[in-house]
Amino acid sequence: MSAVQPVSGSSQSATSQAYDSRAYDVVVVGAGFAGMYMLHRLRGLRMTARVFEQGDGVGGTWYWNRYPGARCDVESMQYSYSFSDELQQEWDWSERYAPQPEILKYANHVADRFNLRPDIQFHTRVESAVFDETANRWSVTTSDGKAVTAKFVVLATGCLSNARMPDIKGLAGFKGQVYHTGNWPHAPVDFTGLRVGVIGTGSSAIQSVPVIAEQATHLTVFQRTANFSIPARNAPLSADERERFRKNYPEIRRFAREEARNGIYTELPDRGALDDGDNERRSKYEARWQRGGLTFMSVYNNLALDKAANDTAADFVRAKIAQIVKDPDTARLLQPNSHPIGTKRICIDTDYFATFNRPNVTLVDIKSNPIEEILPHGLRAGGKDYEIDALVLATGFDAMTGSVAKIEIHGRNGQTLNQKWAEGPKTYLGLMSAGFPNLFIITGPGSPSVLSNMIVSIEQHVDWIADCVAYMRAHGFEAMEAEREAEDKWVAHVNEVAATTLYPQANSWYMGANIPGKPRIFMPYIGGVGPYRQICNDVAAEGYEGFAMISAEQPRKMVAS
Ligand SMILES: Cc1cc2nc3c(=O)[nH]c(=O)nc-3n(C[C@H](O)[C@H](O)[C@H](O)COP(=O)(O)OP(=O)(O)OC[C@H]3O[C@@H](n4cnc5c(N)ncnc54)[C@H](O)[C@@H]3O)c2cc1C
Fold it and tell me: Does the model's pTM come out above 0.90?
C-alpha cells in the first residue's frame, strides 16, 4: 500500500533543541486562511511573527484536499476574505462554487499580494509548545529540530486538517494505491481503467464520486451512513453577477457578520415549517431545491429545533432521492434515516444521486454488511469479496480538536492541553483555555466555526485576537488567561444552547462521534455568528471580562482597564 503522508517531525524534547536566535512576539501555527490573515494583522501592529506550516505551501484545506470534484460549498463571492476591499474588488471567481485549484490560487494570490511568505516557514511542523511561567513566554519546538520563543502562540491549525485514517484489518497489505481525500497527491490521479473503491459517503465522497465514476471502469461506494445532499446548481459566474455582488459587498459582508446565524447572506426565515400548509411548504422547498446550495436549510426558522418541522424537509429530500435514483433498493439505501436533516453538515453535490444510475457504479451497505478486511486486491464486506485496484478513503477528519491534540502543549504547572481536554474540549469563547496563558485558538471548539461560513468566523477571531494583543501591549500586560469560572460558564452555555436543538441527535463529527473513544460533546457554538460576535465584542469592551490580565507588577491578578 502507498499513501501520501504529512511530514512527521522529530520527537526531541524542548530542552534538547537548538534555540533559534530569534525570539518572536507571536508564533502562528498553520498557514491556511486563518494563519495568513493573522500574520497580516500582526504585521499591521508591527509585531514580529513567525508562521510554521507543515505543508509546502499556503492554503491549508485547499492545499491538502485536492481530490477530484473538491470545491467550496459556500458560494465563492462569500467564501472569500472581506478584510481588504481592493482584494474583493479585484479577484474574479469563475464559478458559483470555485473548484479547489482556483481557491488555492486565490490563497497564493493573497500570500503574494500582502507579501506574507517571508514570515512563513513551510515544511515545518510544530511539535510542542511549553509555557515558561517565570518569563511568561512559550518555547515552541519544530520538526526541523529547532526551537523558538514567543510571547503569544496562535493555533491556526484548522478544524478539518487532521485526516482520519480508518483502522481496517489488512489495509497495510493492499497492493494498489490508497488515497485519503484530505491528503491527496499533488500530481493528478487518473482512475481510467481501474476498479475503484470509495469508503465513506460524507461531503468529500459526495463531491468526488461523480467525477471518479466518469473515469473508473467500475466504482464501488461503501456506505455506512446515508447523508442528505442538496444540488449545488454550480454554474459559471458572469461579469454582471460578480459586479452585483461587488457593488453590494458592504451590506452583504455586514449582514453575514452581524445578522446571519451562519455567516451567509441570505433571506432570514420568518416562520416555521408547520405554519404553512402542505402545498405551500412543498413549493418553498422546491424553489430552494431548484436554487441549490446551503440555503435550503433556511427556508424555515425551526428546522434545527423541531423534529416535526425537520421531518417535512427530510421527507422532501428523501422523495427527491427516490425520484432521481432508478433502482428502488439503491434509492432506499441512499435515503438518510438515521439523523434529522442538517444535524450533520449538509452536503452540496453535482449529480451525486444520479451517479448511482450509471452501470459502472455499485453501492454497498456496510452498516448491515460491515467491512471485514482489506484484501491485497480487494475488500471483503458482509462475507462478499469486491475486486478493487485503487482505494479512496473519504473517511473525514478528527475534527476541531485533532490537529491541536497532535501538538504537545504544556501550560501552567506542566499540565498538557490533552490532559485538560480528556473529557472534551473546554474553552472560554472558543478562544482560550484556562491554564494556558497567551495561547489563542482560531475557530476553536466553543465558537461557531464549522457551523458557519468559516472565513467570516476566521476574520472575526483574528480581529479579536489582534485587538486583544494590541490592548495588552498598550496597557503593559505580560500575560492573559481565561478564568476558570468564566470558562465553566461558557462551556455550560455552549452545551445548553446545543441541547435546545436537534443537533446532538446525530452521530456527527460535530459530536466527535466519528472517532472511536473521542468524548461525545457538541463542540461548536450554535448560538449564531451574529450573537456570538456581540458577546466577544462586549467582553472586550468590558476590559476583557472573564480573562485575567497579568502585569509584571501584579502577577496573576485581574486588573481593570
Ligand atoms: C473539502 C473541504 C471543503 C470545505 N469547504 C468549505 C466551504 O465551502 N465553506 C466553509 O466555510 N468551510 C469549508 N471548509 C472548512 C475549511 O477548513 C475552512 O473554510 C478554512 O479553509 C479553514 O482555514 P484554517 O486556516 O482555519 O484551517 P486549514 O485550512 O485547515 O489550515 C490549517 C493549516 O495548519 C497546518 N497545521 C496544522 N497543524 C500544524 C502543526 N502542528 N504545525 C504546522 N502546521 C500545522 C495544516 O497543515 C494546515 O495547512 C471545507 C473543508 C474541507 C475539508
Answer: yes
